[in-house]
Structures are given as C-alpha cells and as structure tokens.
Amino acid sequence: MAPRNCVLCEKNKAMLKRPKTGQQICKDCFFYVFETEVHNTITDAKLFSPGDRVAIGASGGKDSTVLAYVMKTLNERYAYGLDLFLLSIDEGITGYRDDSLETVKRNQQQYSMPLKILSYDELYGWTMDSIVKQVGRKNNCTFCGVFRRQALDRGAAMLGVDHIVTGHNADDIAETVLMNIMRGDIARLGRCTSIVTQGEDTIKRSKPFKYTYEKEIVMYAYFKKLDYFSTECIYSPDAYRGHARTFLKNLEAARPSAIIDIIHSGEAFEIREEVKATQKVQQTCRRCGYMASNDLCKACTLLEGLERGMDTTGITERARKKMEAEGPAPSNLRTIPFYKRTAGSPAVMIESSPA
C-alpha cells in the first residue's frame, strides 16, 4: 500500500501518526505543529515578558533537552527577548546522573547557553547514593523530590534568574492528578494542574509542555536527532508514580485523549472553602529561610532526620513528632545555607546559615 500524503500540507508523504490527534503527517508539518502548540501554550498563559532571565531545568533527558531546543527556537523565531540558561541539579547518583550531566554539558555547547550545576553534596552534604544506602529504596524518591525542588530555587538564585521552566509534560501532569486522587491529597490536587507556580519566597516556575504528549516529545527528539540521555533513574522503579504511569498508559491505549481529559478534569476541580481553611498557612523555615508549612521546611526536617539517624522523619507526621520529643538538634548538625529573598526583586540570594 502506497504511503499517504500528509493531511496538513497534502504534498509530502506522511512519515508519522501523531499520538495526540491520530493525524498522519510529514516531518516538517510535525515540527511546525509541535512548536506552534508550545508557542500557543506560552502566549496563552503569558508566561514570559521581554528581558526575563529564564533557567531551563536541564537533566539531559528527552524532556529537558527538547525543551531547551524548543525554547531557543521559539525565543529566536518570535522574539521573546529572553536570556536563557541551563540549570542542572546533580543528585549524586553514580552511573546515572554523572553520565546524564555529560549530555547537559554537550547541550550547553550545542545551544550556546550558560550552564550552572548545583549538587546535593554541595547544598545538603548528602548524595542520593549515600541517602539510599542509609534509608533504602522505600522512601528515597521523597528525599530526592524535596531536595531537588529547593536546589532548583537556590541554583536559580545563583544565576539571578526570574523564572524556571521545567520539562514536565502532559503525561507527567495527568499522572500527578491520578496520584493525588488515589492518595486523597486534596491540597496538591487543587494546584497540580497549574501551569505556573510561585510561592511568596520562591522563583516563578512554569511548564511550557503542559499539553504536550510524552510520545510526541520522543518523536520530536528522534526526528530532530537531538542529543539526550535515555536511561531511567536506577532508584525510580519502586516509586509510587510508576503505578499511576502504568494505569495512565493503559487508559491511553484505549483512548488517546485520556491524558488531556484527565488534565482538564484536574483543572475543573474546585476545593471547598472549608477544606481550604484546614490547610496550613505558608511560613518561613526558621532554620534555612525557605518556604515551609511548619517551623522547619520539609528539606530541613528530612536532613535533620538523616543526620540523627531517624530516617522516616519528614516522611510521616508521627516520626516528625517523635524527633521533636527527643529534644533539640545537636549544635554540630549539618544545615542548609540560609535562603533570603531580595526585597523588591524576584531574585534571591544565598547567605551563610544564621547561628
């Protein structure tokens, strides 16, 4: 059977079938619609202003590599007027992150963007290898997620940027909606579909790939012959997210629009006022100055638990109260450098930890 012509240009031979729409199109039309949809997401949400300094969260994987390439392309094509940077977090995972960072360093040269790498070891005094050695693989993704979020903000502070963009795609967001439903996590369910997030003391973050399917990101990287690292994190197979991912893939196989449908459902959720009233008010961590819902932020609580050999502290409320009951932290406890927002500016700075 002869190949069909592209349904969009009707001239070139169709080379692929879009997972998102089922259309059979040529490579050039795929590149155009992929990039245009991301551009529309950016403009509809008014993500940027001319002169913004934007850090791209770069892991070396397909999502962040395609994001860096597309952000550079759109910035030049539509004259966004952005200063773009690559920001990588080195979690300290031997045989995974050290290899992927080599990809990021090549991307730095390929895309001509400044690169900042900040490590867990530098910031927390622990690597993920050492954390997993102590706590095992049951809750290791909790440590990594909390530490990574704060590390991104601190790395952005060092770069003096206004905005962080991450490669979270439609599949990621749909998975998060499902996870929050399965866990009954009302607080996160109310905000997990937001394209922009920003706390009072944190740098603005956004997800330009919010409506972009993971399969299409892979296809874009393949046909553009982009340089990316494809190995999965060696500590992630046991993560809770994996169950939501498997469920979502089964839904997508039966109904490709399921991913976008779940995102739209999440956007439509409204949290009752009486539920909002029970949520903790955001405050400032008394130890490191980062945003927190208790006296200590999640990262400081987890770090103190590691230092004191109480590994589940910060994972459960019961473990946190048990640590508090055992008395104050030792004076020689390793702590996170103090985090302070500069008055009147979205940028932040890092200072020495207060006594």
UniProtKB/TrEMBL annotation:
Single Gene Ontology BP term?
protein urmylation
Q: Which residues bind ATP?
A: G57, A58, S59, D63, I89, G167, D172
Chief location of this protein within or outside the cell: cytoplasm
tRNA(Ile)-lysidine/2-thiocytidine synthase N-terminal domain location: 54-232
Task: Keyword check for Acetylation, yes or no.
Answer: no
- A Pfam match is zn-ribbon_14
What GO CC annotations are associated with the protein? Answer: cytosolic tRNA wobble base thiouridylase complex; mitochondrion
Q: Where is the Cytoplasmic tRNA 2-thiolation protein 1 C-terminal domain?
A: 283-310
What are the protein's GO molecular function terms?
A: ATP binding; nucleotidyltransferase activity; tRNA binding
Q: Where in the cell is it found?
A: Cytoplasm
Enzyme Commission code(s) on record: 2.7.7.-
Q: Which UniProt keywords apply?
A: ATP-binding, Cytoplasm, Nucleotide-binding, RNA-binding, Transferase, tRNA processing, tRNA-binding
Presence of keyword Cell membrane? no
The metabolic or biological pathway listed in the UniProt record of this protein is: tRNA modification; 5-methoxycarbonylmethyl-2-thiouridine-tRNA biosynthesis
Q: HAMAP family, per this entry?
A: CTU1
Which NCBIfam families does the record cross-reference, listed alphabetically? TIGR00269 family protein
Family of the protein in this entry = Belongs to the TtcA family. CTU1/NCS6/ATPBD3 subfamily.
Described by its record, this protein's role is as follows: Plays a central role in 2-thiolation of mcm(5)S(2)U at tRNA wobble positions of tRNA(Lys), tRNA(Glu) and tRNA(Gln). Directly binds tRNAs and probably acts by catalyzing adenylation of tRNAs, an intermediate required for 2-thiolation. It is unclear whether it acts as a sulfurtransferase that transfers sulfur from thiocarboxylated URM1 onto the uridine of tRNAs at wobble position. Prior mcm(5) tRNA modification by the elongator complex is required for 2-thiolation. May also be involved in protein urmylation.
What is the protein name stated in its UniProt record?
Cytoplasmic tRNA 2-thiolation protein 1
